[in-house]
Amino acid sequence: MSVASTKAFPVAWCRQQFPALARQVDGLEAVYLDGPAGSQVPRRVIDAIGRYLIETNANHGGRFITSRDSDAMLEMAHQAVADLLGTTSPECTVFGANMTSLALAFSRSLARTWKPGDEVIVTRLDHDANVSPWVLAARDAGATVRFVGIHIEDCTLDLEQMRQALSPRTRLVAVGCASNSVGTINPVAKICAWAHEAGAEVFLDAVHYAPHGLLDVDSWGCDYLACSAYKFFGPHVGILWGRRERLERLAAYKVRPAADTLPDKWMTGTQNHEGIAGVLAAIEYLADLGRQFGGGDERRGAIVTALNEIGAYEQQLCRELIAGLEELDEVRVWGITDPARLAERVPTIAITHRKLPPVALAEYLASRGIFAWHGNFYALELSETLGLEPTGLVRLGLLHYNTSSEVARLLAVLKELR
Ligand SMILES: Cc1ncc(COP(=O)(O)O)c(C=O)c1O
Predict the structure, then answer these.
(1) Do 38 and 108 fall into the same domain?
(2) What is the pLDDT of residue 26?
(3) What is the CATH number of the domain that holds 330?
(4) Residue 207 and residue 356 in one domain
């Protein structure tokens, strides 16, 4: 991993880009810690959506100017996503409604290649969007599902169990890049190497990781990856990437008149073009953030710099938040808390309170202008494994537009509860 520069992170510049951050609640500045369920968006994303609808609103493939401009924008958006994911093949990037819909549709195609006796590995750390699609697909194919568990003390994946679960029968390993509940980062390159040794493919859920760390499909060696733009400062659009040879060979569930070529083969129906214009603008925002640290105009390089700097800045916020939480006897932090291991997590911190159930704690924070989610965040296997169903946890989700003073304010509010 490359090292962040010594230049201070331009959080003031970042915050100026996001109009929603100016919101007040009862005279207090709102503190947005709800990012894991959807980040706020920069002004340029809002403008790009509006501009698309005013200037180029048209369907795909027409000979007239708005359709041609719209298609040119789509092409640029595929290229931008390829730069975000670390691939040189924009035609292998697919847009869809959201990650869940893309995973459900894709699992149906993949499962047509499975048979009884085949095995699929899922984990108890994942969001259910990377569990249920594979469980349902395996059921349809008569394949067997193997669950890999976690180490409860730090909410990391049990990698030994993963190794043991892999065999020549394994067809797919579905694993997340980072937990949307407790923030653990999984060693996905290592898992891809193990899976490939066993002859299996890997589907990565990068939804939670994308706003925090660099996506790098080529160097990770995964076979498929999905993410969602509304988690990385864009609008509600899902993204799927797959290896060209697989996307070409697999049969898509599609209508007959739709193209058989990539990427259209996998993009069923008319897409959310205005949303895709917003995705392009969100990726440009990240690249511009990278350009604040110098370097050239080349977009992938700028994205690499941006996510490197975001990671370093977020790690500092995470350190401050965990240190403060650890001083509160009533609060339990789930997941990695060791300051020496912060590179193994993103700054998504799940807590429980000894006296207040998660919903009451979230309400209390809301009354102080702090937005945080409670529940299981659809990471249902994890919540069950931790014995936290049905109430779940409270998730304090930091993003790079959050600040040290917001962390201090949150900690002060939690102290009031003593
Ligand atoms: C890790 C993870 N995977 C998948 C999803 C589902 O994404 P989408 O809402 O785009 O279907 C989410 C949503 O919260 C998530 O956090």
Answers:
(1) no
(2) 95
(3) 3.90.1150.10
(4) no
Strand partners, 240: 94, 226
DSSP secondary structure string for all residues of 212-270: TS---HHHHT-SEEEEEGGGTTS-S-EEEEE-HHHHHHSPP---TTS-SSTTGGGS-SS
Residue 270's alpha-carbon distances to 193, 207, 234, in angstroms, are 37, 23, 19
- Say whether pLDDT at 169 is over 80: yes
Distance CA(232)–CA(373), nearest Å, equals 17
Nearest CA among 87, 68, 47, 14 for reference residue 299: 87
Is residue 313 domain-shared with residue 216, that is, in the same domain?
Answer: no
pLDDT band of 160, cuts 50, 70, 90: very high
Q: Is the pLDDT of residue 1 over 80?
A: no
The atom number, within ligand 1, closest to the CA of 205 reads: 3
Q: What average pLDDT does the chain have? A: 97
Of 233, 258, 283, which residue is a domain's last?
283
Confidence of residue 3 (pLDDT cuts 50, 70, 90): low
The atom of ligand 1 lying closest to the CA of 378 is 14
19 token code pair: 């109009």
For a mutational test of ligand 1's pocket, the pick from 100, 123, 179, 212, i.e. the residue with the most ligand atoms closer than 8 A to its C-beta, is 100
Task: Pick the atom of ligand 1 nearest to 176's CA.
Answer: 1
171 lines ligand 1 (CB under 6 A): no
In a domain, 290, yes or no: no
* Residue whose C-alpha is closest to residue 68's, from 53, 56, 78, 80: 56
For ligand 1, the distance from its centroid to the CA atom of residue 297, given in whole angstroms, is 31
Last residue of a domain, one of 233, 251, 283: 283
Query: Ligand 1 pocket, 100 CB below 6 A?
Result: yes
Our answer on whether the CB atom of 213 is closer than 6 Å to any ligand 1 atom is no
How much is the pLDDT for 71? 98
Full domain range(s) for residue 172: 47-283
Residue 144 has pLDDT above 70, yes or no: yes
Q: What is the pLDDT of residues 203-257, one digit of tens each?
A: 999 999 999 999 999 999 999 999 999 999 999 999 999 999 999 999 999 999 9
Q: Is 205's C-beta closer than 6 angstroms to any atom of ligand 1?
A: yes
Residue among 125, 128, 231, 399 whose CB has most ligand 1 atoms within 8 A, to mutate: 231
The protein residue with its alpha carbon nearest to ligand 1, atom 7, reads: 99
**Distance of alpha carbon 157 from alpha carbon 7, whole angstroms:** 35
